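Table S2 (continued). Query chain:
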Amino acid sequence: MKVSDSNMEKGSCWLSAVWLLLSAVLSLCVSTYSPAQINPLLYEEQLLWVSGAQGQVNTYRIPLLTFTAKGSLLAFSEGRKATAGDTGAKFLAMRRSTDKGATWSPTSFIVDDGSQPDGLNLGSVVVDEEVGSVILVYSICFHLYNCEPASTMMVESKDDGLSWGQPRNLSVQLGVKAFAPGPGFGIQKRYNPAKGRLVVCGHGTLEGDGVFCILSDNHGRNWYKGAALKSIPYNQKKKAQDFNPDECQPVEMLDGTIVINVRNQNNYHCRCRVVVRSRDGGLSLPIEELFFDQELVDPAVAAGALQKDGVLYFTNPSNEHSRINMTLRWSLTDGVSWVNKAMQIWAGPSGYSSITTLDSGSPEDQKYIFVIYEKGHKDYDETVSFAKIHLYGGQ
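Corresponding output:
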């Protein structure tokens, strides 16, 4: 039976209308969320490393987490060979996920410092999205324990974390001042000033402490010293409540400024976080851009921070005296104030943390952030755990 042209046209119009309606419904389903809707839910969690579970490693500590330009997640930690202490020989351990954290590769040791008395210390990972490389910056002999001088080191992957080049010693460019990057992630500036610049910030020894940044304007080939926020008194023994900024996490805001969230080592002014801002791409940290964030109570620890879609996220063990109560907070005002609610990730012992997200173009990426943190039942260094958090899952 032959269908008339008019009926075919009517059918075609009807199908077009249905398609437009479905498209509208689908677009609503994947429409952007409002920051006011944030109500986080711990979506899933798994242990990436367990201390003492492998013969070569006594303790896993100092977790880092980042994305790659190809949409993978890379997790790093120190594999402390003999003891849980900060000195001693270590591996630089890594695991990789290509399915947004659902499964992970076996652990690989991408750097082995042998049997050094004061081995490697992580460290900052920075993703150069312009060339697709991942750079890890770490230190050797940072504590000057039966060794000298200290060295700032770099190792790079150009194939999404599958393989890593030989470590490079950056001390020829930067000098031999003891510098401990991060721990956390470095940034590549996405906005002016200095768009494209790599910025890695860290701290000095306890006597010569402070926040120090190193910069590269040519994708990590050359590095030079940037901003410095020195402790007081500088290069002298500290007392309780001296000004002693320490481990830090920089994040770039949408206006191109860099906000650095800092460990307040000696509890100067408060048992809370120090925050300082650079407006010139990491060249300086003026004292007038510094404040103490009384809302972010802290037991003096390395914390996580992340800027995502105009929202600033922060993780730490939220307690004035003890490393317990790993908590996620968020700010809709670039950290000027914090939303008056928080999500507890883990009530028990918890230590260092790091946050990242994915930006692969999928609408799903808007919904999630990823947190890696030290977690235990009796001590915070028992495990390193990976948590996938649905930012709107608690609706």
